[in-house]
Amino acid sequence: MQKQKRRKKPPKRVLALPDLEQTKSAVLNTLTSKSGQRSYAHAIDEFVDWYCSVPRLALNRTVVLRYRIYLEERHLAPTTINLRLAAVRRVAYEAADSGLLSPELAAGIRRVKSVRRIGVRVGNWLTVDQSRNLLAKSSGEDLRGKRNYAMLAFMVGCGLRRGELLSLNVRSIQMREEHWVVADLHGKAGHIRTIPIPTWVKNAIDQWTSASGITEGCLFRTINKAGKIWGTGMTPKVLWEVVRKAAKTADIDKLAPHDLRRTCARLCHLAGGELDQIQFLLDHVSIQTTERYLGCKTKATSRRQRQARNRAVNSMLGSSSLW
Predict the structure, then answer these.
(1) pLDDT of residue 76
(2) What's domain 17-110's superfamily in CATH?
(3) Average pLDDT over residues 96-119
(4) Which of 64, 100, 169, 233 is 20 to 30 A from 196 (CA-CA)?
């Protein structure tokens, strides 16, 4: 008897909810950054909700263009729309790679262009008086007050990202060239850099570690209602709550953790720091990004110079007339 040839099933044109969940898991497994996983998971969930709410259509370029129009009608920022479209392209790529979607349809989806960004959105940063007031109002004699003050001082004085602050290890704080630094910090996109720590920030860290008794592991941790350390780390939600409460106490509206990173760049520039040194401190790939943080455009060398620990750009914040 002749064996009947099995025909391969053609790739799907309409993806069901289990197919989308499988593709979402495949996309998230390819990402190494936790913040990237959160952003892509949220973007994919929103696309799945929209895709399942409309009449079931084939997942093709026309559908993604309709989704782009839907996002534009919501008056979202171009950066947000482009992130959502990038997540959809990633879904189409993974679906085609696993045989759930036709390669031709996936290629059409990947040709959907991003939204053009016209102009530059103004950043949010604090003035010298606002920064001083924020740190003064957040300090306290209890364990939570010392932790909050050290966290805010770290973000204002060193310009750390949210994820970098939460993953900071006690052993990373070391002495190099007679200056305290955060050694070999793993930042965005796997970049490794060393961040100088001003003296007043190191004093805030010492007060927190001596009161908490933390000698290893994560530097900043959650504190329960009883005022005791709970867990081995902190979540971004707790950090947001710390910044929100400190801003409310200091009468500052709409302050986010990333605004303190912009504040560090602005204060370093006001203290006389060079633009390329600020770029080195904040780990910006492009000098244009640093200029957007400062809200100005200046001439700077494209060559990244080595940063000396004893004359770091953020070391001038504690000794200058700004404070």
Answers:
(1) 92
(2) Tyrosine recombinase, N-terminal domain (1.10.150.130)
(3) 89
(4) 233
